[in-house]
């Protein structure tokens, strides 16, 4: 069920009116639905019911808010982290260290050490040298780091170039053919237990075929490695499932994904790990904003200028992403308009010539599907406030991340006394 619905003509998140939150917290503000996060977590888990041994690690990068992580920790999810900061968040939110997977192409020695000291469950190696460094750090401390090797299967994920990760020219993983050599050189080294493979070919995937092609290649490599005598017990299949952003857009369902996984991985006899991000958080959040002006353009579409901007929701500017724009109190009237924020560059445009609910200055509206890669990618460009976040649970809500206003930002800056 959709927990972002109009009731008595006013958009609600679960049982809370968006108008009430705007009045108490102000705008722009991200609003998340706990029930939606929990439902998505359950749907993804149910989709894997026919896969024998699974471990689901939520991709923290999608939405790292502590309260969101706590909801997912309570749902039994582990975490896929890509920095020491995300690792600290996952632990602070109550995720068991053993359920944390550490991905990322540029882990520093300090971060590897943090992972060892935290006792995380798995390091996903992105290159051979990382394995040698990790082994040395672990061995010095009398530890053994569980690790898998991320391979690049060279398949085209068919998504936006900036979020494609599994092509030969991308910076991620090692060419899949290099895996046997790397396993041979890391095998038996004190400090590391290389136990499998990882793959992640991209994000917002609208087609299961490239994923299937990648998994088939990984399956072949599992057999090759086993034939060479390497014990393979874990394979991390990454994340990447797309979500619908536009009305009528269809995406492969988690159930279809689960069926494909069960079919392709039958007989692998490993623990399969998953790193879903967007499919959990994307449609669990909206960005609430207020219209500042509606600016007429002679001979063209009017500009709806809202108080949210590219610094709050970067996806349209970065990836030409579509986020539905819905009035909090729609009148039924529709207009064709451009939608933009106040930031001083033309890239700060959310939509062009789009048919939307008719809005006037002072009206509230939301950008939908903003729960993933929204607040976490926000900045303070143009000295705007860092956008706050609210979590709704039934008929209660809480501010789960404060608005950081320019005065607070300046408090962290210094003018040297020699100026
Ligand atoms: N695992 C790895 C290794 C990843 O790199 C990613 C995403 C995920 C899992 C989670 O993927 P998901 O299930 O969310 O598709 N900022 C971009 C998305 C970047 C995704 C980066 N990696 C956007 O707003 O579309």
Q: How does this structure look, described?
A:
The protein is α/β, with parallel strands linked by helices and about 425 residues long. It folds into two domains: about 5-30 and about 280-410, Beta Barrel (Lyase, Ornithine Decarboxylase, Chain A, domain 1), CATH 2.40.37; about 35-280, TIM Barrel (Alpha-Beta Barrel), CATH 3.20.20.10. Helix content is about 30%, strand content about 25%. It contains twelve helices and 21 strands. The longest helix has 20 residues, at about 210-225. The mean pLDDT is about 95. The structure holds ligand LLP. Ligand LLP binds near residues 59, 80, 165 and 373.
Q: Based on CA inertia axes, which overall geometry fits?
A: globular
User: Which residues form runs of ≥5 with pLDDT under 50?
Assistant: none
- What's the pLDDT, averaged over the residues? 97
Oligomer: single chain
The number of helices is: 12
What name is given to the CATH topology of the largest domain?
TIM Barrel
Strand content: 25-35%
Q: Looking at this structure, what is the CATH superfamily of the largest domain? A: Alanine racemase
Please give the CATH class of the largest domain.
Answer: Alpha Beta
Identify the CATH architecture of the largest domain: Alpha-Beta Barrel
Ligand inventory reads: ligand LLP
Give the total of beta strands. Answer: 21
Helix content: 25-40%
Whole-angstrom Rg: 23 Å
């Amino acid at each position: 069920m959709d927990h972002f619905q109009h009731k008595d003509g006013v958009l609600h998140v679960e049982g809370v009116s968006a108008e009430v939150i705007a009045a108490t917290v102000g705008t722009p503000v991200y609003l998340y639905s706990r029930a939606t996060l929990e439902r998505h977590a359950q749907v993804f888990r149910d989709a894997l019911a026919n896969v024998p041994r699974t471990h689901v690690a939520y991709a923290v990068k999608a939405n790292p808010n502590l309260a969101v992580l706590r909801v997912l920790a309570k749902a039994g999810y582990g975490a896929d982290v890509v920095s020491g900061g995300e690792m600290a968040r996952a632990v602070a939110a109550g995720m068991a260290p053993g359920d944390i997977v550490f991905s990322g192409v540029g882990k520093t020695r300090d971060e590897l050490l943090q992972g060892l000291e935290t006792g995380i469950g798995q390091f996903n190696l992105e290159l051979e040298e990382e394995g040698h460094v990790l082994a040395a750090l672990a061995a010095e401390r009398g530890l053994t780091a569980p690790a898998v090797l991320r391979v690049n299967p060279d398949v085209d994920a068919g998504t936006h170039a900036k979020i494609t990760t599994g092509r030969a020219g991308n910076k991620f993983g090692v060419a899949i053919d290099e895996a046997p050599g790397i396993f041979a050189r890391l095998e038996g080294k004190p400090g590391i237990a290389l136990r499998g493979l990882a793959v992640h070919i991209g994000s917002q995937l609208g087609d299961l075929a490239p994923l299937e092609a990648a998994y088939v290649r990984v399956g072949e490599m599992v057999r090759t490695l086993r034939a060479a005598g390497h014990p393979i017990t874990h394979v991390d299949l990454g994340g990447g499932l797309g979500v619908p952003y536009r009305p009528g857009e269809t995406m492969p369902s988690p159930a279809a994904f689960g069926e494909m996984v069960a079919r392709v991985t039958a007989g692998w006899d490993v623990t399969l790990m998953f790193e879903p991000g967007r499919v959990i958080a994307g449609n669990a959040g909206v960005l609430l904003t207020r219209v500042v002006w509606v600016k007429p353009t002679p001979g063209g579409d009017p500009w709806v200028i809202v108080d949210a901007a590219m610094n709050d929701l970067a996806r349209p500017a970065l990836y030409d992403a579509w986020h539905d724009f819905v009035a909090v109190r729609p009148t039924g009237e529709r207009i064709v308009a451009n939608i933009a924020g106040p930031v001083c560059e033309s890239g700060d445009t959310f939509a062009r010539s789009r048919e939307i609910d008719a809005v006037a200055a002072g009206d509230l509206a939301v950008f939908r599907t903003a729960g993933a890669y929204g607040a976490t990618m926000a900045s303070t460009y143009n000295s705007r406030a860092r956008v706050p976040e609210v979590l709704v649970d039934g008929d209660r809500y809480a501010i789960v991340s404060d608005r950081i206003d320019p005065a607070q930002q300046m408090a962290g800056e210094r003018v040297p006394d020699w100026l």
